[in-house]
């Protein structure tokens, strides 16, 4: 096989292997390529909030799940996620007092 065919094959494999709701590598403008539609807040171990920047114009929230360590991108517009962030914010403010 020539180099062009190998390159095309690799690009196809990379495109097909993308997993929904997972953060992508740092070479992409934004970390989250797709967003999980539903996540049970009881199974979230940690939340990582990435603010908007020059490389990505939106705020991204990445949750690490308790049971398997899987990372999922969350929908910031979801009512459940907004409530979760409000609760986390209140918890932080109580701890700082």
UniProtKB/TrEMBL annotation:
Xref: InterPro entries: Chemokine_b/g/d, Chemokine_CXC, Chemokine_CXC_CS, Chemokine_IL8-like_dom, CXC_Chemokine_domain, Interleukin_8-like_sf
One BP annotation, GO: negative regulation of myoblast differentiation
Signal peptide: 1-21
Subcellular location: Secreted
GO cellular component: external side of plasma membrane; extracellular space
UniProt keyword Secreted present: yes
Entry keywords, A to Z: Chemotaxis, Citrullination, Cytokine, Disulfide bond, Inflammatory response, Secreted, Signal
Ranges for domain Chemokine interleukin-8-like: 27-88
Superkingdom field: Eukaryota
One Pfam family linked to the record: IL8
Single GO MF annotation: chemokine activity
Family that this chain belongs to: Belongs to the intercrine alpha (chemokine CxC) family.
Name of this chain's protein: C-X-C motif chemokine
Organism: Callithrix jacchus
């Amino acid at each position: 096989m020539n180099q062009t065919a190998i390159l095309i094959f690799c690009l196809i494999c990379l495109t097909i292997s993308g997993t929904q709701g997972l953060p992508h590598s740092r070479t992409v403008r934004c970390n989250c390529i797709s967003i999980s539609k539903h996540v049970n807040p009881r199974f979230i171990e940690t939340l990582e909030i990435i603010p908007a920047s020059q490389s990505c114009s939106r705020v991204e929230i990445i949750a690490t799940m308790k049971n398997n360590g899987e990372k999922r991108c969350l929908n910031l517009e979801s009512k459940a996620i907004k409530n979760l962030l409000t609760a986390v914010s209140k918890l932080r403010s109580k701890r700082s007092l």
